[in-house]
Amino acid sequence: MNASNPSKDQNFCPVGQFTFVLHGASGDLAKRKIIPALAHLAVSGYFTGDAQVVFAQREAVDVDVFLAEVDRFLKAAGDENGRNALPALRPFASTCQLNLGAPGDKAALNAALKGGPEPVVHYAALPSARFKNLIDCLDEIRDPARLRLVLEKPLGRNGAESAEIEKWVSGKLDESQVYRIDHYLGKQAVQNLMALRLGNRIFEPLLTREHVAHIQITVAEDLGVEERAGFYESAGAIRDMIQSHILQMLAIVTMEPPVSLEADSLRDEKLKVLRSLKVPAVVGTPEIVAGQYGEGYVRGQPVPAYKAEKGVSPDSTTETYVSFRTEVQTWRWAGVPILLRTGKRMPKRFAEIVIQFRDVPKPLFEPVGGMWTGNRLVIHLQPQDKLELFLLAKTPGERERLKPVSLDLDFFNTWRIPVRDAYERLITDILRGRLNLFLRRDEVVAQWKFVDQIQNDMKRHGYTPVPYTSGTYGPSAATAMALRAGATWSEDAQ
Description:
This protein is 34% helix and 22% strand. By secondary structure, it is α/β, with parallel strands linked by helices.
């Protein structure tokens, strides 16, 4: 669902004056996610007459021509809601030709923004290699009330490149001005996970090594690389998904309760988790499985192998799937297996967090099907946001048999208002100056340290991805790895 109607959204409140500069406005991310989010906010009344949205790109183009291009893009993508909202953005919109890195780019940017309302938000929907060019264009204004910078992931390709970017950023801005965005943190289900843990007494005492058998986090995609082969060849599944989205979700699930909901209190606790992660073993009894999809069938349609995709090297060793076992080495979680996975060309698109609780000490009932599934809490992130709690209940009849039943919280059906898109929530937080759902610099450092060590170990031991058939849940070795941890992947447990 998209932006809510302000007459039905009790949390609705205009965000006040601002200038929002979208760098890389002609790119896929901007047209697919950011511009529709801005349009939904505009149509919902979040913007007032003091708001300005500037689309910055290399080519000089009239704003109406540009919005027509976006409309055609959204039509091809099947996003009718975005198309319908787009006209509401027109009163706030203008364009700016800006060739970052070219002589005079800073003067051109300043001229386009002269006299506009503050704060000025610079949203870098750009490859990280161009972040320095953008930062060079910014005046040194160390005041979050006047200037804010939004950086999309990934911040570089490794820890060293990320550190170089952060050096450029800190040379111009304070930490309070920097919004490192991970759109998964804007999802309603992730925010409700924090509310579930920190606002309800019945769950928090159970989230310990004494009660939890294992945790698994999955981000599965049925698509291939589509038009992103150039990016994906240099990134792969580990950099694209593990380094950002999945590690952040893991940190939220396993962090200690913060002393407050202030940004730094939350980020302090996430940082402790990220610094305590056990690096999975590559050799011996492997705790990591990497794969690359071959040809197969997805939703009944034939699809090519990764190496046959346009823009992919025929001898590519880029992983399109990865799963591994880790552990949060703290008193609360020591010894609890944590299974993480992500992959492309899987049977369906879904993202979820599963917390599997331990079985009762002495089973007295007979499980239906002869296998215990126990209690589990499932946080669904896509294709829809919802929570499910699976309990065991007695089946009708004389036999003392138990079968899993679920308590289902669907956010839209519960509140009867549309759930806002993650980018809509995060953009309003940026405009209001709220840092709670954004990454701090030391979190990014910790995430890259963990991922760099995994990739360095794989390279040192000559580990290459194993093939798996498109339309399956990845290599069979991943199932064996989960079984060694005493777990089954969620689709196998259903």
